[in-house]
Amino acid sequence: MSDQEETAGGGLRKELPEEVPVTPVQETAVPEKEQGLTGRQRLAKGLWPPRVTRAQLIVAVLLFGLGFGLAVQVASNSDSDSALRGARQEDLVRILDELDDRTQRLEDEKQGLEKQRDELENSSDQAEEARKQTVEKERQLGILAGTVAAQGPGITMTIEDTKGSVEADMLLDAIQELRAAGAEAIQVNGVRVVASTYLTDSDKGVSVDGNKINAPFRFKVIGNPQDLEPALNIPGGVVQTLEKEQATVVVERSDKIVVDALRAAKQPDYARSSSR
Prior knowledge:
Elements: H1 3-15, H2 39-47, H3 54-85, H4 89-122, H5 126-145, E1 150-160, H6 168-180, E2 185-188, E3 191-193, E4 199-202, E5 205-208, E6 211-213, E7 217-222, H7 225-232, H8 238-244, E8 248-259
Antiparallel strand pairs: 1-7, 1-8, 2-3, 2-7, 4-5, 5-6
Helix pairs in contact: 4-5
């Protein structure tokens, strides 16, 4: 080999990197207490006991509350569905007709309000029209507040209670059902029923706004008789509940019901009109 080749060979050897010794990989030591366990046992040991953070605990509580609420709602709906499921076909038709009647009443009320608005907008004497509507509104509010007498078509409901089993909450249910059916004025044994009326059980009777009344309980109700009577006779309604308590209920329609029990107009102690 020539000197030139040796020089070239020596330069090649100098350019090659030196060999790096390989460090052996150390195996991770398994804790002494886990030696001898299988992979499945180690996995189970890692998952239990669970390590729950505060955020996870809050989310779990919220999910539990949501699930409980849904369960209560489903149970409530199931009870209502079961009551309707056991009703006869004619009863279901009557309930559906009652719902249609309520919808129609709301639609009529809407149309009446729209008519009043149009009259105010189009009347040549808006001040006089507004005065007439104000007087009419005052009369309507007086009927609702019980400060003026009222008359019109409606029903009378008489409850005979020889066993003394009729309680205040049963009469309150009757009042609420009548209001839901569109009753505009109600009188019970000479006591006018208004928005603030309350009923309590009294000695061998019932107290209405502090006035004790005894059986027979006589309701005088002004409203559409075709809506009021079916509302009391729906399956599981007021009449059936009272009859289960061995009370006798008689409902009669009339073209003219007079509600003449009055309430004294009460002035508020603190509330004042905000209009200027």
